């Protein structure tokens, strides 16, 4: 057996920080990361032969749990035919048809290889379509590591206390207007002073990279109205929320049609996939139809499409959203009652199969509220839970995900472990 410790030692010599994505390094909770050698259902099997109930779910994609037999079979069948063709392939058409069928605002869609590519391409398209250059984003929202969006970004960028990355020219960031989430006045003011220059608003439809923050009633509707009246495009980043909260994502739940939608994670069934789509009139501005260039050697890759199609079809067949939401509510209630029993202030924002923990008295409505909450308790709970076999995201500013493979015994066990870990 090669231990996690040994692998991490080797990794650090040849990979910056020993990881291929920063939050994996456990910097914000302390300690060293474990390595996973396999995963099945709701469990990870570590290199040290520990079994962990997993609430990271590969950072969102694994809504069916790990290694689902139907997804594996779809990939195996595709693999028989070849790994990449460099020409259009039939899977891409099925995938696009599914996304157009299921996501309310999407009339045409283009596949890419990650969520980052999806948001990057969506904002380029918004700029190309409108002929304007400024983009509004909200503090704490993470849209991948796109240069101009790494301003007050959430997820790993926030975790490291360095929201603005080195290497992003000031001129790029200058095209980004950052506003506090849930602040209608700030939004109106930004449009009043820059309206003619604003190509679009990009927003995590439910921000989930700074813990989990839910919109105040009407906030998303206001965005829609302002964009429509000023000629800017509304871009929903549903990379995390798409297919997680409903087949049609937050736009279905809230009944709001963005102009463009960025997608990723679940639509790849665990393989590297992203997509962006929206109104046909806008999407037709993309090359080769239009003047906005965007391309990808492996975009629409047959293995990735096969995995994603299988994942989406499973969701259509099973419609697991009520069941997932019940599991989310059970964990939320267990956490809240454990905290209450100990007199510890805790907020557990939860929607469907997503939840997060904020150690604070008040509802968290924005980035400043989130970052001023207490983080030490989370670190303690994280390590106690890990010790007892429950893996939460290794940062106080990430969202936990539940999969359909988290059965009753896994959820009950999780509630037991989390409750016991509230012993401060
Ligand atoms: N947008 C959102 C909302 C995300 O959560 C993420 C990744 N966590 C991204 C974009 C970037 O996706 P990727 O890591 O696949 O590039």
Written description of the protein model:
This protein is α/β, with parallel strands linked by helices and about 425 residues long. It has two domains: about 5-65 and about 320-420, Aspartate Aminotransferase, domain 1; about 70-315, Aspartate Aminotransferase, domain 2. About 40% of the residues lie in helices and about 15% in strands. The strands form three sheets. It has a seven-stranded mixed β-sheet, sandwiched between helices. Helix 3 packs parallel to helix 11 (about 300-320), helix 7 (about 185-195) runs parallel beside helix 8 (about 220-230) and helix 14 (about 375-385) crosses helix 15. The two termini are about 35 Å apart. About 50% of the residues are buried. The structure holds 4'-deoxy-4'-aminopyridoxal-5'-phosphate (PMP). 4'-deoxy-4'-aminopyridoxal-5'-phosphate binds next to helix 4.
The helix/strand class is: alpha/beta
Q: What's the helix-strand series?
A: HEEEHHEHEHHEHEHEHEEHHHEEHHEEH
CATH topology of the largest domain: Aspartate Aminotransferase, domain 2
Rg calculated over all Cα atoms: 21 Å
């Amino acid at each position: 057996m090669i231990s996690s410790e040994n692998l991490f030692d080797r990794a650090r010599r040849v990979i910056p920080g020993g990881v291929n994505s920063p939050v994996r390094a456990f910097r914000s909770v302390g300690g060293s990361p474990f390595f996973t050698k396999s995963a099945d259902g709701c469990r990870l099997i570590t290199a040290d032969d520990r079994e962990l109930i997993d609430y990271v779910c590969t950072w969102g994609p694994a809504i069916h749990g790990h290694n689902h037999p139907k997804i594996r079979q779809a990939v195996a069948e595709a693999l028989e035919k070849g790994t990449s063709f460099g020409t259009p392939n039939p899977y891409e058409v099925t995938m696009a048809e599914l996304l157009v069928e299921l996501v309310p605002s999407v009339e045409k869609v283009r596949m890419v290889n990650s969520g980052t590519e999806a948001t990057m391409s969506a904002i380029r398209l918004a700029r190309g379509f409108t002929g304007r250059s400024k983009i509004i984003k909200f503090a704490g929202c993470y849209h991948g590591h796109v240069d101009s969006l790494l301003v007050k970004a959430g997820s790993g960028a926030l975790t490291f206390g360095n929201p603005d990355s080195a290497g992003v020219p000031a001129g790029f960031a200058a095209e980004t207007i950052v506003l506090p989430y849930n602040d209608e006045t700030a939004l109106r003011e930004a449009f009043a002073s820059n309206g003619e220059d604003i190509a679009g608003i990009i927003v995590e439809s439910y921000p989930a990279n700074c813990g989990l923050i839910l919109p105040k009633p009407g906030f998303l509707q206001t965005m829609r109205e302002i964009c429509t009246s000023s000629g800017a495009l509304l871009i929903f980043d549903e990379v995390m929320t798409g297919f997680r909260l409903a087949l049609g994502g937050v736009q279905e739940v809230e009944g709001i049609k963005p102009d463009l939608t960025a997608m990723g994670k679940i639509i790849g069934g665990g393989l590297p996939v992203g997509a962006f789509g929206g109104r046909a009139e806008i999407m037709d501005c993309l090359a080769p139809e239009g003047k906005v260039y965007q391309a990808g050697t492996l975009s629409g890759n047959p293995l990735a499409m096969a995995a994603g199609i299988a994942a989406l079809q499973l969701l259509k067949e099973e419609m697991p959203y009520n069941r997932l939401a019940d599991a989310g509510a059970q964990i939320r209630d267990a956490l809240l009652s454990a905290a209450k029993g100990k007199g510890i202030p805790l907020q557990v924002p939860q929607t469907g199969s997503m939840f997060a923990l904020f150690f604070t008295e008040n509802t968290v409505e924005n980035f400043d509220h989130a970052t001023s909450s207490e983080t030490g308790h989370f670190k303690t709970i994280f390590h106690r839970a890990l010790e007892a076999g429950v893996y939460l995201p290794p940062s106080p500013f990430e969202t936990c995900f539940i999969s359909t493979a988290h059965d009753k015994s896994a959820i009950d066990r999780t509630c037991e472990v989390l409750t016991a870990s509230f012993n401060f």
